[in-house]
Amino acid sequence: MFDLSLILSSLGLLILLGGLFYTVRIGRLVSARQSELDTEIDEKIRRHPIVLNPVFLAYVIGIGLVILYMLYHVSLS
C-alpha cells in the first residue's frame, strides 16, 4: 500500500511540475505579444508578475501539499 501511495504521490508531483512549466512558458508567449486593445497594467503587477498570478500560486500550493503528503507517508513508515 505504501508503494502505491508513493508512486501516485510522485506522479502527482510530476504532473504539477509539468503544468507549472507549461503555464510559465505560455505566460511568456502571451506577454511577448503586444496588443493595442490591452489596458495599462498596474505598477504592482508589473513589478511582481509571477507572485500576483493566481495560477502560479495554485501550482505552488499544490506542489507544497503533495510534498507534505509524501513526507507524511514517509514519517509513518
Write up what this structure looks like:
By secondary structure, the protein is an all-alpha fold. Helix content is 77%, strand content 0%. It has one domain. It contains 3 helices and no strands. The radius of gyration is 17 Å and the shape is elongated. The mean pLDDT is 78.
Tags for this model:
single chain, 77 residues, mainly alpha
Principal-axis shape: elongated
| Helix count from the secondary structure assignment | 3
Number of strands: 0
List segments where confidence is low: pLDDT < 50 over at least 5 consecutive residues: none
Mean pLDDT: 78
Strand content: under 5%
Please give the structural blueprint.
Elements: H1 2-32, H2 43-47, H3 54-76
Helix pairs in contact: 1-3
Summarize the structure.
The protein has helices spanning 2-32, 43-47, 54-76. It is an all-alpha fold and 77 residues long.
